[in-house]
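During the reporting period the student researcher (J.K.) took over the structure-prediction task from the postdoctoral fellow and processed the backlog of single-chain submissions. One of the processed entries is reproduced below for the supervisory committee.
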Amino acid sequence: MKIRNREERQKNELNMTSMIDIVFLLLIFFVMTFKIVELEGDFSVRMPLAGGSASDPTDLPLKLRLRADDAGKLTSMSMNEIDLGTDFDKLRGNVVGMIGGNAPVAGDEGPELEIDTDYNLRYEYVIEAITAVSGYKDGDQVVKLIEKIKFAKPRR
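J.K. obtained the following structure tokens:
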């Protein structure tokens, strides 16, 4: 028995060399252009040590209350229930007395201040209070007092 069409019996081969080259080129391209980004919400939270005592006054947040009249003018300030009037120098002196005038060391963030204001208080008084508690200039040196400041929800 003779087969008449020998051309049909030949194998059709696919050349895979060029396909492998393209796959490796794409792989190299994606590896080289991949950028690693930090995860969102990755916060470095420092928890207090177990068994620590809250007797140290710098462990507790200081509370500064700023009261205003209807026009938004500052009427009184109080820090941890101590009335300070409207004098920001007296506020700074009170903070220096509570902290001891020692600047926080590199590993320690120092005390934390929570500012509680009336809803209609003008911003200039809040800025003056932040300036008074954050530090002062002693000659050519800057003395830092409180660096961690947070705000309570304004009262109506």
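The committee noted the following: Helices lie at 17-33, 88-99, 123-134.
J.K. will present the remaining backlog at the next meeting.
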